[in-house]
Amino acid sequence: MSRENDGWIKTTCAYCGVGCGVEARPKLSGELEIRGDKSHPSNYGKLCTKGIALGDTIITDGRLLTPTLNPNDQPQALDWSSATTLIADKFSQAIRDYGSDSVAFYVSGQLLTEDYYVANKLMKGFIGSANIDSNSRLCMASSVVGHKRAFGSDTVPVCYEDLELADMVVLVGSNLAWCHPVLFQRLRAAKQVNPELNVVVIDPRKTESCDIADQHLGLHSGSDVALFNGLLTYLDQHQHLDHTYIKAHTQGFEQALQAARAQADIAEITGLSHQQLDEFYHAFATQQKVVTLYSQGVNQSSIGSDKVNSIINCHLASGKIGYPGCGPFSVTGQPNAMGGREVGALANTLASHMEFDNPQHHQLISDFWHTDNLATQPGLKAVELFDAMAEGKIKAVWIMATNPMVSLPDSDKIRKAMQTCPFVVVSDCIADTETTRMADLVVPAQGWSEKSGTVTNSERRISRQRRVMPSPGMAKPDWWIISQVASKMGYAQHFNYRHEGEVFAEYARLSTLGNLSGERDFTLIGLTQLDDQGYSRLTPQQWPVVKLQTEIVNQRLLTKGRFYTPDGKANFIATHHKAPHDGTSNRFPLLLNSGRTRDHWHTMSRTGLSARLGEYRTQPYVQIHPNTAAYYGITSNQLVKIHNTQGQSLARAEICAQVLPGQLFMPIHWNNATAKQSKPCALIAPFTDKLSGQPEFKHTAVSIAPYALQSAARFVTRTMVTLDGVEYWARQKIEHGYLYHIESSLPAHQLANLLKQQLHSGYDQLLSVDSGSAGSQQRWVTVCGEQVLQALHVWAQSLPAPVDDLSELLKSPFSDELAGALLALPTVA
Ligand SMILES: Nc1nc2c(c(=O)[nH]1)N[C@H]1C(S)=C(S)[C@@H](COP(=O)(O)OP(=O)(O)OC[C@H]3O[C@@H](n4cnc5c(=O)[nH]c(N)nc54)[C@H](O)[C@@H]3O)O[C@H]1N2
Ligand SMILES: Nc1nc2c(c(=O)[nH]1)N[C@H]1C(S)=C(S)[C@@H](COP(=O)(O)OP(=O)(O)OC[C@H]3O[C@@H](n4cnc5c(=O)[nH]c(N)nc54)[C@H](O)[C@@H]3O)O[C@H]1N2
Ligand code: SF4
Ligand SMILES: [Mo]
Fold this sequence. Notes:
Family: Belongs to the prokaryotic molybdopterin-containing oxidoreductase family. NasA/NapA/NarB subfamily.
Protein name: Nitrate reductase
GO molecular function, one term: metal ion binding
Pfam family, one: Molybdopterin
Shape: globular
Helix content: 25-40%
Radius of gyration: 27 Å
Oligomer: single chain
Structural class: alpha/beta
GO biological process, one term: nitrate assimilation
Bound molecules: ligand MGD, iron/sulfur cluster, molybdenum atom
């Protein structure tokens, strides 16, 4: 650990794929101080709201502390030896009885590279099945297909610096301002320095990323292929093709151009005017240095792979690739999405960018791992895997660092899959998630600040995450848990790692197999000599790492016009626009889009612990255009029901012109562990891209209606409560406790009676006040000594909502004055 610096320890942020360097310093009080690492090339000291609040999230509230059998029904605490023996026995038994394809791992881009490597080695190398897939399937899979088809390998050619060096940056299906905020800050700063830098945002929504945009193309959802086919045709028609490049370094151009030319009705399909299209096409064609940065608006589509290739085609055709300030740029979402692709933890790849269909690769890995059981066929992709579970074909599954009950489409099917599978193990840091609720065995994993290893960011830069805090309870690193199980399955000599540095060293060596002259893009040959101390002190390294980097480097790939295809040429891919699977109808006339909000991360297991982050968006919401809201009689902030034949979700209406009429946008964060019925995946059918297996999360036909209820409440409490019998609740973290937002079909006095049962005993004062008119407004407060324990305010919906949310009560010592204020009802707006 680098402790030279007054106790500040260098590590990497827990969240997005920007991979910002963080310095953390534990205080005697148990708190953790956080600041940006000025020497880190991702962020040079900057952090976003989530990064700054990392210290808030190390609290042990809700942590999973002990391996537990049947956690939801007669929980039984186990020691590690019994827990890992049980997993080994159940997996071995299933393999003996039903074959190695009857078991599976479902893993995550939030594992460290070392964890990921070991999981992949056990499943593909020794169990002999490729049934290991990652939540990156929901995130990067279409980009991986696009890269491999075009470049022959999963290569991201550009660096962050290219955003600063570009003449033009096109953001396609990326809300960079919220999802990669520090990268967005870099782009904003570059534009301040060079106002000529042309920024274009291509997104059906007018997002915060448009704040710095010169042009926003609010295209119809799902129409990107048509848009970029139009660009390819424009490049041809206006003599902006780079014929020399096309001829020397590519193949398949004519077919791609033909497909693009056949693209009719571009304006109609995209919903953009000819003038908008021309402006964009002209700018792309005439600017020399263009970066096209794309994310989930591209990947999460039933034609996501074609979207990716339609973008890459335009870069190849104009030769805008392989030099500074230029190139297609798929940004990664999770902190180690890139690392997962490197270790091969997708069901259809082998380790270290080696491939199933290459017998030489197969032999190299088998020899290196000393195994004769390496999987020979790709395994099941995430959606297929859960289908197989629902059909009873998977007898044991191990889910690590992901929450599929919330994040996979078709929530009902996922529930059925989890119920059907005879043995479900979940490794997580948090005790109560929708997925742990379905587990037969839960095992506690170390989380950010406790675990140690490496992550790779969007620009291929590998950084250390370091241990800065002790882990609570019995939590262990994922690589250790997997290795213990592997040993008990009979593979001890292959998994006897003493620490994560040994795993990394093995992985670095593996990257060199058959790769001594740069046959593959990914190599860590320069790190194979790293000793324990070197690993411990490792500074950020951008792959390919040919020799240990002692200074910051910015390496681009594909610079020589040489690609990783058999003949070294890049492939154009003929792409065709196809409408998304789900279409609107009279019954379901609106389109639901889903994605992220600024201050929350995924299913909120971490950001949901920070009061600061909770303040920005306090409840699940749905963005709706004013015209649509007026049509459906929906008023601002009202509770609404979004529904279709898949299911229903509840959220508060945010009426805004960010979305087009007829479109809705819901954030993905709230779920049944943090709210009642508020997850978009309950509405989303499992349509996927045929090639990548990535689900179409951004295009679902739904209807909407006001959800009018009788009464509402706010409930402030120091510890979490369980709310049964109300139609809607959402939990917000506040300082010293939680604030529940509640709505109910009961009359106010009945709701008050129901919620009063949640007032814990142990108080020495109970204050209550009733506004008198049939209990239509009531307030209850319990106090112990100088502390307010819980406070409840219930009111009839016919009354305006109270102004104060009661959360201040947990901060200040209780006094007569406060008592007086509390009892002075009504406090209505
Ligand atoms: N605050 C925050 N940041 C995060 C995360 C988080 O949970 N919270 N998660 C991280 C992860 S894992 C990921 S993958 C990234 C995702 O980062 P982004 O992809 O930037 O985020 P999303 O909000 O999922 O989707 C981006 C945009 O795609 C648009 N879109 C929808 N349909 C289409 C379409 O057909 N065409 C086009 N062009 N655009 C469309 C949506 O309107 C949305 O604004 O964020 C990472 N960063
Ligand atoms: N509708 C819709 N659905 C989507 C998306 C969308 O845009 N729309 N986006 C998709 C995308 S891009 C993504 S990436 C997924 C994300 O979806 P998930 O991966 O399901 O979301 P997380 O909440 O990040 O789940 C991570 C879990 O791992 C735990 N965890 C954290 N660190 C560790 C660790 O070190 N070890 C272990 N064992 N556990 C750990 C956390 O407590 C948490 O429970 O959602 C996908 N689903
Ligand atoms: S931009 Fe991403 S990596 Fe950087 S601080 Fe924010 S969440 Fe963390
Ligand atoms: Mo993601």
